[in-house]
Each structure stands twice: as C-alpha cells, then as structure tokens.
C-alpha cells in the first residue's frame, strides 16, 4: 500500500520548519512489510536517501533528504523514538503503518514540549536535569530490597525516560518547577528503598504540589507503568511519612 | 591511586560504561561519560534472563571453580583462563553491591537471592529479575551514577558521537578522543585515557541482530583503522531462539528453556514432534550451550525428514513461573506475534545475538595502545568461542570496573607498553600497509543504516553464518572487494569515504579470521573442517594499521 507520510521537518541551523509529504510504498520494507511501523518507514527512507540508495521523492518532486531521528532498540524498550504520530505521542517502533491504511496518510511530528534540534530529534535533557534537581538517588549505604518494597522498586525501575507522559500533561513545561511523571516514576524506586533524606521534600515541591491529577499520563505510557499506583504510594511516602 | 590521573574518558554508557564511571567516581577520579543517547537507550536494557555469579544459594554446592570450568568449556577453551577466573571471583562482590544499590533480585523463600538454570551450566548461578534483568541493573546503576553527576565527578556527554581516537604521532599511545556534539554538530577533544565501552558491532549486520541500532559498529571500525588490534572476530553468537520483528530479530530469552521450554520440529511422515535437543543430548538437552543449539537447529531445519519450522514449547511452564519469572516474555510474544506462549508453541529461528570477539585486551582490559582500554561486548575477553548466557552482563560490569582500576593504576606509570600486547605486522590482503581512515570529517551519519551498510551486512551474513565453508568465505571476500572497488574514484564526500573504508577493513578482517581458522570451535563451524584441533586453541589477532596516524 502507498501511504502519504506528512513529515514536519526542521532545518538544523535555522530551525525553519516546513512540511514534506512523502509517498511511501510499504513494499519498500520487503520482508518487514506486514508489521511495518513508522520506525520501519523512517529507516527505509534514510537508507534510500543515503549514498548508493535510489532516493525517494516527495509530492513536489523534490528529493527526500535523510530524516534526523533517534532510534535504538526497535522493540519499545528504550524510549528513543518518541514522536507525535497523527496527533498522539507514541514510540515510532510501536505505530504500525497498517493503522493508517484506511486514511492513506499519517502525520509525523516531533514532540512539542521539548526544543527541536532537527526534524524529529528534540532536546529532552530537561528529563535528566530534573532528576538531578530532585536528587533521585539513594543517600544511605545498604538498600537490599525488602519483599514488600519489591513491586514498587520493580515498577519504578521501568521508566524509559521517553517524555511521552510529559507531552500530554497539562501541567508540565520544560524549565518549569513541576517535573511530572517522568520524575515521579524513578523517584518511586528510590522512595521504596529508603525513608527520609532530601527526596521526599523535593518530591512534594516538584511533583506532588504541581500535579493536577489529570492522569493523562496513565494510559499513554508506552511501558504501561502502573502510574497511578506509584503516584499514590509516592504521595504517602512524601507527605504522610516524611 | 587517585590523584595520578585527573580524568578518564568513557565511550558508551551501558553496563560496562556505567560500571567504569562508578569505579572512577568512587575513587575520586573524574569521568567523562560519552554516549550518543542517554543510558536508558543502551543495549544493556534489553538483557533479559539474568547475570551469573556464584552465591550458592540453591543447594547445588556451586563454586567459583565450577563457574570458571563452565565458562572455559562453553568458550571451547579459547578464553584466557586467568581472566575468566578473575571475572568469576569478582562476580559475587558485584552482586552484593548491586543488592545494596537496590536491584530487586528474585528471592528464595529464605530471603537469599534466587538463581535459575541457564545454558551450559549444570548448577544454578544465574540471578535474575523476571525476564527483565538488564533494565533492572541499568536503572540501579543510572541512579548510582546520577549522584556523582551532581557532585561533579561524572560529566555526561549524552548526545555525543565518537569520531576518532586522539593518538600520539607514532600511533602507539592514546591521548584522548574526538567527539561530536550531535545537537550543535561541533567537535570537541576530551584528553586523557580512554575506555571503550561501545558495545557489539550490530551495525555490520543491520537488520540481522537482536541488538540496538545505536551500536552501529562505527567505534570498532574506526579504532581498527587507527591501529587498535582485534581478536576472535570470527566468533559471532547466534542465539537459537529469536523471532522476526520489523527491522531486527527479537530475543526469546534462554530463561524460557531454563524454566522448562522445549525445542522441537515436526516429522513430515509421522507428524510427531521430534525434540531434537533432548534426543541428541540426553543430559543437558535444551540447555546445551548456544553454539550447539543453533548448529543443531540449522541441521534439523535442513533435514528434509522434518518440516522447516522449529518451535519452542513453553505450555507446560506453571502459571506461577509465568507470573514471577517470565512475565515480560509472555507480554512481548502476545504483542508482537499475537501468540500466548503459555497456550501455544512459538516458532523460533537462530539470530545474531552477541559478538564474542572484538577489541583485543589483556586481563586488565588494556588494548595494544597505551592509555586505551576496552570493556563489555566491544572487547574480546572471557567468552572465547562461545558465550554462556548470563556471562555477558557480568562480563560487562566486571570489565568496566577492571578497566577503570587499570586506567587509574597505569596513569601513575610512565609510558607503559601493555603487558602481553603485541602489535602484529599489519597489512591488508594484498600486502600493502593499511592506512588510517579516520579524520574529523568522519561524519555522524543518520542513526539508521545506509544502503552501503545493508549491502555489506548482507554479504557478511551470508558468508559468516552458522555453517561456514571455504567457498562461501572466499565468495564473501570477493564481494567485499567488489564493493570496495565500486566506491573507488567516485566523487562522494570524504566523510562517507572514510566510513566505508573503515567498515570494509573490518569486514575483511572478520572474513580472514574465519578463513584462517581451519577447524571448528564454538560459534565458528566450518563444514570443510568439522574437527576441533588442539593446535588451533589460540585467538586469531588482527591489526588494521602498521601505525595508527592522526590523518
């Protein structure tokens, strides 16, 4: 099937943006055509755009230059390929092209809550910065996990740091004092390991108080983390038992 | 010896890179931790089944000697036994530290850390967290390192691509590394000793491996061209149980067999199941080492008495085990194949999963260049001709620590030539000295493979498969040379030229290694030389350059 990919491109130096429509024939994915995803399409487009490739043309007849994007695991485990697909933030390796077959087109844009670097690459460093400000690490020496803590330590360890939860959060913006679920989940891990320390107070200030409880993050998380359960437990640890 | 060295540069922020950074930071030494993307994107997060250490919590009477013996035997006696012993001795200490860092290891009822059965090991020493061990280890280490980032001891360069090593003019010492900031596209030089933790060369076989796209092989290809010696390049592990998903092979953890999964094919006439591993290997059955299982899978698939598909039957695994130990595996099978492995068998095929060979290092993880170290999958240590499941994660963590200790210790000494390192005469196939193909113009290419990468990868995949022979290897070499000729004299930019030349140099060295090993050992199986020969029980080393240069 031929799918029109409407891609929002951003030039690296000037940050000028323009839309490019690329007619993509899923047969180009070869053996992968059946389960092909947006990640498959981007991988193919780039192989064709590279030296020695035949090169695709967009609907204006212009050559499609390689698309800047981030990709690592191709199996929903690393968070690299987060982007907005048909208006919904998702991992590109999880968005099957067949979903868009009926419409015949799909819109692909970078996440909007983070500064764009080039095409689909955004600067998500605020995620790491916020975790440092929040001091998400163990203070003490020995945190052999008690059996009761294991489910929370496990769940709190699963965050991909993809930023998709923050994309849909009505309260988060990069640089603001509310750090959102992407900080809350790793914080849950540490707070299940130790009581006290600097983290509960910082969590209250930067997560608990700013969270509007919209829970938009809950079902959008590609790792399907049990977010509301963690938020509830964190609240207890940070507010009642601190 | 903190104080003798100010700063160490680490390329790669997975298990080995983070372990190196932690070791340095705890000794008060600054570490620059360089990676293309944050640690959460590292291949280590994909590790599933577990990590090996002798804790002897299962009543099996496990000992370090047993771990060493299993690792040496699994590696077909190609590994350095002293290095393996140091790995197995340090492993339990590493587990204690991870436990204290809050890794939620699965526990026995008495509270001790539980271990599961894994391939090639009769005693249980594979410690695990469900089928998600890699991610759990990484989350703990990322958090530990974060504290040192705050203290200023670890500096993250987490959107930076390795471009090349910064060598002395005579090419025998490493003074630092040149990296490119992927956001600004600007180059910077980081001076000081370098520890390469850049992972396996998946990018030499794009689409054919279980690993990440991020491990594109650029670091290994570039440093090889700059004069860093490699070994065991022919030793490529095919994991027997993988399933195809778009763009790669997806791993079905060995733990599936550890918890009772059984491999079979269907007899064409009787329609009965033939449990080929259990029939051929009554003792260890489905848990023979991976090279054996992959080879047997290949053999039975080519056997016209059986249907062409291999199945992994996990339907007899108890539901409590699914819930507590294999949950993530079941979810992945449902999501990608729409098969519930608890209810039906899963079709599997072997896929490239690990590179035992790579940068040649001694037991302290020194390379042949002073000031340069390598750890994790990018180096050639511990695993010999075949890696045991669970030894990769432990090898990476131990290797990172050892490399860091060594970098600190070496910095105090003047101009040490690494012990045991030799710089073999380096010539290309036609007898002329190789050139170094690494300049600042070497580009950071798109994160996904180029058309050239796919073409080279398909040639290598064909020639360096599970079953190899002289004809196939020579054909692969001819095709690589033809690919090299295609680009010669064309007008593409220098940057792409260097990228292509580096990969061709590495590809040739891989094929040459396979041609030179005229025997079968571990993952390297030659149907024209099916016997293992005692005289060949040593690694094949390759060097791409007479002297590395800063060209």
Task: Summarize this entry quickly.
The complex is a heterodimer of chains A (about 240) and B (about 550). Chain A is α+β, with helices and mostly antiparallel strands.
Task: Describe what this molecule looks like in 3D.
The complex is a heterodimer of chains A (242) and B (551). Chain A has 242 residues and is of the alpha+beta class. Chain A has eight helices and seven strands. The radius of gyration of chain A is 20 Å and the shape is elongated. Chain B has 551 residues and is α+β, with helices and mostly antiparallel strands. Chain B contains 14 helices and 21 strands. In chain B, a hairpin with a 6-residue loop joins strand 7 (160-167) and strand 8. In chain B, helix 1 (15-26) packs parallel to helix 4 (133-150), helix 3 packs across helix 11 (391-411) and helix 12 runs parallel beside helix 14 (494-516). Classes of the chains: A alpha+beta (242), B alpha+beta (551). Chains A and B meet through helix 1, helix 2, helix 3 and helix 5 of A and helix 4, helix 10 and helix 12 of B.
């Amino acid at each position: 099937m031929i799918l029109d990919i409407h891609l929002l491109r951003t030039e690296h130096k000037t940050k000028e943006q323009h839309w490019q429509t690329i007619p993509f024939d899923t047969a180009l994915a070869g053996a992968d055509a059946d389960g092909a995803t947006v990640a498959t399409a981007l991988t193919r487009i780039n192989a064709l755009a590279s030296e020695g490739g035949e090169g695709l043309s967009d609907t204006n007849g212009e050559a499609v230059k390689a698309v800047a994007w981030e990709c690592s695991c191709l199996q929903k485990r690393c968070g690299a390929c987060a982007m907005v697909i048909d208006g919904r933030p998702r991992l590109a390796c999880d968005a099957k092209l067949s979903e868009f077959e009926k419409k015949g087109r799909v819109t692909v844009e970078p996440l909007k809550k983070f500064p764009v670097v080039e095409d689909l690459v955004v600067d998500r460093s605020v995620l790491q910065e916020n975790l440092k400000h929040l001091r998400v690490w163990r203070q003490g020496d020995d945190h052999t996990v008690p059996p009761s803590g294991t489910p929370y330590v496990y769940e709190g360890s699963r965050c991909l740091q993809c930023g998709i939860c923050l994309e849909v959060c009505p309260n988060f913006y990069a640089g603001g004092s509310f750090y959102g679920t992407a900080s809350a989940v790793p914080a849950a891990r540490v707070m299940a390991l130790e009581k006290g320390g600097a983290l509960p107070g910082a969590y209250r200030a930067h997560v608990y108080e700013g969270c509007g409880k919209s829970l938009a993050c809950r079902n959008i998380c590609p790792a399907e983390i049990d977010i509301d359960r963690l938020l509830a437990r964190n609240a207890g640890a940070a507010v009642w038992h601190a | 010896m903190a104080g003798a060295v100010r700063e160490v540069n680490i390329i790669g922020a997975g298990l080995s890179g983070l372990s190196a950074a932690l070791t340095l930071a705890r000794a008060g030494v600054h570490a620059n931790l360089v990676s293309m993307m944050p640690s959460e994107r590292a291949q280590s997060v994909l590790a599933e089944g577990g990590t090996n250490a002798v804790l002897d919590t299962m009543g099996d009477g496990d000992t370090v000697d047993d771990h060493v013996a299993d690792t040496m035997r699994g590696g077909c006696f190609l590994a350095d036994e002293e290095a393996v012993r140091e790995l197995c001795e340090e492993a339990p200490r590493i587990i204690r530290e991870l436990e204290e860092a809050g890794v939620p290891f699965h526990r026995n009822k008495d509270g001790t850390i539980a271990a599961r059965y894994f391939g090639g090991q009769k005693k249980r020493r594979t410690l695990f967290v469900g089928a998600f061990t890699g991610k759990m280890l990484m989350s703990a280490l990322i958090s530990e390192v974060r504290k040192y980032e705050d203290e200023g001891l670890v500096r993250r360069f987490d959107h930076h691509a390795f471009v090349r090593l910064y060598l002395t003019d005579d090419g025998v010492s490493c003074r630092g590394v040149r990296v490119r900031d992927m956001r600004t596209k600007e180059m910077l030089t980081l001076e000081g000793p370098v520890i390469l933790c850049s992972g396996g060369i998946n990018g030499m076989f794009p689409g054919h491996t279980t690993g990440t796209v991020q491990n594109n092989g650029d670091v290994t290809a570039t440093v090889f061209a700059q004069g860093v010696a490699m070994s065991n390049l022919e030793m490529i592990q095919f994991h027997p149980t993988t399933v195809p998903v778009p763009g790669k092979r997806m791993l079905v953890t060995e733990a599936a067999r550890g918890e009772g999964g059984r491999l079979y094919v269907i007899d064409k006439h009787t329609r009965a199941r033939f449990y080929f591993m259990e029939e051929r290997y009554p003792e260890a059955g489905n848990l023979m080492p991976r090279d054996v299982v992959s080879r047997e899978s290949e053999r039975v698939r080519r056997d016209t008495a059986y249907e062409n598909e291999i199945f992994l039957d996990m339907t007899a695994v108890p539901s409590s085990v699914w819930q507590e130990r294999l949950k993530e595996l079941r979810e992945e099978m449902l999501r990608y194949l729409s098969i519930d492995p608890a209810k039906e068998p899963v079709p599997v095929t072997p896929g490239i999963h690990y590179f035992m060979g790579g940068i040649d290092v001694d037991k302290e993880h020194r390379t042949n260049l002073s000031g340069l170290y390598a750890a994790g999958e990018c180096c050639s240590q511990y695993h010999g001709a075949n890696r045991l499941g669970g030894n990769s994660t432990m090898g990476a963590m131990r290797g990172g620590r050892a490399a860091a200790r060594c970098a600190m210790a070496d910095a105090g000494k003047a101009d040490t030539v690494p012990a045991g390192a030799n710089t073999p005469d380096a010539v290309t196939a036609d007898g002329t000295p190789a050139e170094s193909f690494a300049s600042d113009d070497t580009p950071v290419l798109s994160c996904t493979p180029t058309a050239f990468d796919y073409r080279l990868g398909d040639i290598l995949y064909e020639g360096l498969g599970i079953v190899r022979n002289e004809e196939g290897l020579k054909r692969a070499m001819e095709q690589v040379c033809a690919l090299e000729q295609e680009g010669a004299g064309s007008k593409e930019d220098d940057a792409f030229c260097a990228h292509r030349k580096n990969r061709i140099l590495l590809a040739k060295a891989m094929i040459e290694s396979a041609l030179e090993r005229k025997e079968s050992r571990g993952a390297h199986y030659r149907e024209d030389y099916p016997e293992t020969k005692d005289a060949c029980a040593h690694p094949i080393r390759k060097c791409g350059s007479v002297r590395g240069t800063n060209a």
